[in-house]
């Protein structure tokens, strides 16, 4: 009875536009706009292709460019927001979005299209910023649902772009309607960013913004975690190499160009390793007090969980229309409308996952249950075939989507609680692994059919659920207020210990 009453109370509180709920609504709308901008090319892929006489391979290049820099951007944005605060960083991303957006709208060559989409891929990192903003305003016991609302309602921006932008282009009229529609998203984003800068604060009154003690890389607090962070960074660079390989596969990069990219990524790996080693000198020397440490293995498990949940969502959303069209002989429009049910679940499923994490007493067990449900959902999708009625196939997709997005909500119900002063960087790292997962799954789809694709996701979800055994329930997960912070004022004592 208490649990159901708490759930009803929190859902009713969402109608409020005061205090922390005002910040939540303004912040999910910021995320919504970044996703509208980030996904504003997809509805016009065929239109742009016809306008520029692009081949199918060139359209595929543009789609890859749209996500190419999102992985490193999420990590870097996580560092920036921990240093300068989410308010300024979110406003900067929203205003920055106008530049590459308008450049894409005004493009006159394929090269300009490529350059502007690469620049626009950075906007996909905006999600990370709101994770910390929301966590600062909501107490630990309520953070799951708040982060779920932020992620689920904001993530709907991709679907909104697909639904609204073609209509806007038609209203604006003419062959260049797509240019005006895409350009307008950048202008709206920039205007909202300027307003957001004045409309919100980083923290409630009397609560300071806790910043990392050391800058340049994620601060870890145990000697073994340094090696763990070095290992965890490698797949991020590997994902960039995978994008380069895909670009070379479609002929956009030459063999020499691919070699240059690989050499550059190798150099970046060395530079990144040196930075991690330097920044985490206190951890290497075991200089942290036991009460100041956090379990880095939790970060690893959360990265794996988000690679499976959000990574599979990105991959499936991009292939599901083609899958439905090929399996059931549907038209392109009908297949797109049918597959859209997967994305629409974001509005309710992701907040539900966060709410369950708040209410069920164990965030670790809640995430484990969502991952197991996700595994079953994808196993069901692997069984979908031409003999199925289309409505039943839609039900299977929506059931799968329910657990996918609830799993995302359950993951980010934990992320901001692992270690508050570096929560932005942890959110960025976990978010980047969502894109890594998507690239890995889509690469598998190149060489295997949909059945193997769905079964592979199902198997990886089971692996992630097993890994949750090593996830540590964050201290104070269900506290009514934030615990007193170990802010940067304590840093000099730590530096003395390692001098």
Could you walk me through the main structural features you see in this protein, from its secondary elements to its overall organization?
- It is a single chain.
- The chain contains 23 helices and no strands.
- The chain has 2 domains: 17-209, Growth Hormone, Chain: A (Up-down Bundle); 295-499, Growth Hormone, Chain: A (Up-down Bundle).
- 75% of the residues lie in helices and 0% in strands.
- With 499 residues, it is mostly helical.
- Helix 10 packs across helix 20 (390-412) and helix 18 (346-359) packs antiparallel against helix 19.
- The protein has helices at 2-13, 19-38, 45-52, 56-68, 70-84, 86-96, 98-105, 110-120, 126-137, 143-155, 157-172, 177-199, 223-249, 255-279, 281-284, 296-328, 332-344, 346-359, 363-383, 390-412, 423-447, 450-467, 491-498.
Radius of gyration: 22 Å
Report how far the terminal alpha carbons are from each other. 55 Å
- Show unreliable segments: 487-499
CATH homologous superfamily assignment of the largest domain = MFS general substrate transporter like domains
Helix proportion range = over 70%
**Topology as a string of helices (H) and strands (E):** HHHHHHHHHHHHHHHHHHHHHHH
Q: How many domains would you count in the coordinates?
A: 2
């Amino acid at each position: 009875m208490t649990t159901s009453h708490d759930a009803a109370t929190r859902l009713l509180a969402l109608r409020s536009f005061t205090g922390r709920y005002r910040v939540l609504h303004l912040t999910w709308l910021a995320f919504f706009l970044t996703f509208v901008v980030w996904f504003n090319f997809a509805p016009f892929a065929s239109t742009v292709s016809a306008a520029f006489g692009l081949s199918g391979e060139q359209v595929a290049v543009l789609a890859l460019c749209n996500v190419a820099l999102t992985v490193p951007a999420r990590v870097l944005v996580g560092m920036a927001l921990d240093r300068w605060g989410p308010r300024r960083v979110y406003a900067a991303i929203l205003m920055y979005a106008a530049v590459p957006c308008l450049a894409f709208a005004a493009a006159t060559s394929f090269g300009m299209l490529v350059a502007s989409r690469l620049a626009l891929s950075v906007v996909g990192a905006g999600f990370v910023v709101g994770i910390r903003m929301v966590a600062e305003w909501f107490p630990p016991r309520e953070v799951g649902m708040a982060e779920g609302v932020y992620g689920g309602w904001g993530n709907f921006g991709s679907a909104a772009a697909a639904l609204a932008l073609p209509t806007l282009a038609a209203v604006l009229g003419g062959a260049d309607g797509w240019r005006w529609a895409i350009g307008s998203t950048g202008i709206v984003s920039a205007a909202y960013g300027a307003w957001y800068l004045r409309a919100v604060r980083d923290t409630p009154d009397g609560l300071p913004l806790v910043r990392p003690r050391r800058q340049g890389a994620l601060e870890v607090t145990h000697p073994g975690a340094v090696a763990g962070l070095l290992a965890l960074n490698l797949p991020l660079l590997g994902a960039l190499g995978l994008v380069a390989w895909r670009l070379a596969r479609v002929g956009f990069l030459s063999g020499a160009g691919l070699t240059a990219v690989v050499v550059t990524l190798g150099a970046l790996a060395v530079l990144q390793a040196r930075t991690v080693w330097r920044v985490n000198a206190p951890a290497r020397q075991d200089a942290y007090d036991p009460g100041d440490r956090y379990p880095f293995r939790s970060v690893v498990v959360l990265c794996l969980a988000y690679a499976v949940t959000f990574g599979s969502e990105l991959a499936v959303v991009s292939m599901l229309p083609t899958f439905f069209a090929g399996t059931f002989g549907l038209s392109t429009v009908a297949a797109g409308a049918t597959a859209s049910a997967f994305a629409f679940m974001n509005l309710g499923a992701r907040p539900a996952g966060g709410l369950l994490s708040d209410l069920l007493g164990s965030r670790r067990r809640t995430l484990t249950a969502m991952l197991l449900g996700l595994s079953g959902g994808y196993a069901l999708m692997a069984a979908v075939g031409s003999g199925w009625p289309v409505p039943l196939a839609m039900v299977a997709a929506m059931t799968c989507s329910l657990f996918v997005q609830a799993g995302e909500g359950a993951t980010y119900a934990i992320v901001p609680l692992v270690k508050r002063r570096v929560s932005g960087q942890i959110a960025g790292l976990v978010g980047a692994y969502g894109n890594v997962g998507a690239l890995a799954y889509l690469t598998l789809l190149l060489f295997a059919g949909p059945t193997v694709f769905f079964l592979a996701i199902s198997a990886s979800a089971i692996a992630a659920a097993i890994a949750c055994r090593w996830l540590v329930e964050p201290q104070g997960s269900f506290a009514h207020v934030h615990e007193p912070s170990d802010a940067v004022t304590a840093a000099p004592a730590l530096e003395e210990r390692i001098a």
